[in-house]
Records
---
Amino acid sequence: MVEPITLYRKARAPRRFLAAEYVELTMHFQCNLKCEHCMIEDSMGWLKPESMERFEQILQRNAAQRTWKGLILTGSEVTLRRDLPELARRAREAGFEHVRIQTHGMKLASVEYCRELVEAGIDQYFVSVTAADARTHDAITTMPGSFDKTMRGLENLDGMEGVTTLTNTVITERSYRQLPDVVQRLGHLRRLAQMDFWNFWPMSEQDPKDLIASHLDVLPYLREAIRGARALGRSVEVKNFPECLLGEDADALENEQPKLIIDPDFWPEFMRNGFHQCVHRDYCGARRCLGLNTAYVGKYGWHADVLVPLPKEE
Ligand code: SF4
């Protein structure tokens, strides 16, 4: 059952972390998990990580221009880089106020490793939590024991001064029913500042693994999760969901991303998603909406009678 739709544009909620204040550097393209929703699983083998020369260039550029407050170290699983603490130290020495890593969090199960990263200057941790329980999470990551390690990692970080954690849960056919439970499962974490919910996009014109869930099925779970996370004092960001369907919760939609520095060969793959498709696009006033993508339309159609164009600004 779809709740009544908001026929006005909902302003974006105040953001705790502004995408424009961060630059994202892809420093590693290997992973020791095989998540079924991995958006770069086909390209991970040939995408080239940024070189140390490029890393230093970004540091020097930012030291001179102060364009960004924070550096995000990412790629596939950046904790597999042995020199990760050294990269963080260099970034802090060069003046970055924050260094964040994006991680599946397994290695954080070691409290000594967490301490090493924190002491090196990594103060923000964006951790993938794919589901609310070990059985589902481990099935998604295809790694038995991964949920317990990731949870232990988040709890280790929760005990460390100066640390902020963020989580992301990718919304797929397998995970969407658990979104509110994920919020509750992480309810004890004091340092968890933000929960993200990224609606899966397949980097393809099709959905070969049948992972895309219908927006109409996802909607009540997603809205409950948004409200639950906010009730716990978290900020929330939702990506790739139709703005008009979210009603009063549309202020959680945030499709802005930090400046991404990545192998240029990534972009043709990304463009295969074909975002921004909607039968109402020409006259809809939504400014943050990515509409539907090619694989979604192929699977579920246009939802022309459910999506409601928002008024344009006067
Ligand atoms: S572009 Fe389409 S999906 Fe997005 S808000 Fe407008 S009508 Fe809804």
---
Amino acid sequence: MGDSAIAELEQALERRRGDGLARTRRIVDGPQGPRLSIDGRTLLAFASNDYLGLANAPAVVDAACDAARRYGIGAGASHLVVGHCVAHEALERELASFVAPCEGARALLFSSGYLANLAILTALASRNDVIHADRLNHACLTDGALLSRATLVRYAHCDVGSVAARIGAGSAGRRFIVTDAVFSMDGDIAPLPELLELARRHDAWLVVDDAHGFGVLGGGRGSLAHFGLGSERIVYMGTLGKAAGVAGAFVAAHPAVIETLLQGARSYIYTTAAPPLTAEALRASLALIAAGEHRRLHLAALVAAFRERAAALPWKLLASQTPIQPLVIGDPARAVAVSEALLELGVYVPAIRPPTVPANTARLRVSLTAAHRMSDIDELADALAAVASRVAR
Ligand SMILES: Cc1ncc(COP(=O)(O)O)c(C=O)c1O
């Protein structure tokens, strides 16, 4: 490798640092929870997607340990070779009937939400098709759309009128409306009933990414249950590393959709199955989600309390009723400075910057979990107020 090639990379990295856009990893020691050991310090953290506090729930940990003794660790192969275990099979059945996007739905497990979204879009869409996608969709939905080679039309955030204006035009290929159900960096909920109606009118598929709604909304069943929706044209994707507290993802849909993914999705076929112990941990977690109304109620009370306290801050609190509570600061370097000032007070809230969010909307992404206590919200609000009076102006 020539010196100039390395120098070019180093210059690009330096520019990134200069723009306040360099990313760093923090090293966590110990299980997830409100008090996290980060880089050797114990901090009150509002950063994880473990919305129900299940990532370290004793029943989930026990299920994983028991499964490790029964099945070992590695799955050994892809699902289509010898990696598909009774634990995966049982979990798929339980997820399908829990989320039930349509009558007789099946579910298919993936090792991550990223792979699941790639699978949906590449197995169902191709060159002559059109994908209408919300401008604020998660990066992996965009990547899946690009990989599919379909025409990608990005519509204004949650703007049903803007989809309606364009979905009737163009080729006779398949049409897709693709949306996050709960937007990962904004916390708002997509207008799924209106999008489904539009999909019906134009014979389109509705792809719903419920990474942040599964476990939280609709009694834990997710965004479809939240709105009371069901349809054979819905392709539902839920992730299992956020509210479910473990890892992986699943697609739930009509059996013909699931069989199409199983037969044709490269990100399903050409990857090793997740360890069976994660499937058993998830079965335990699913039982806690189903019986977890007390967790969701506590979480809703935390969200309400935070919103009340945060309204007085000088930053824009986005209109979100979910555990994702963003405070938009704007400038990336300023967002980082606020996050670092909070760290000095023992509170960790990550600064999210472009390209994860649009230019000039760098923000603090406060995420609340059912494991937080009301006094944690007070501590966070006090720290934010103290930092606001120091650095916001
Ligand atoms: C909306 C959304 N979809 C998909 C994903 C990807 O899921 P996973 O982390 O399981 O790959 C994420 C987050 O990571 C997400 O926020």
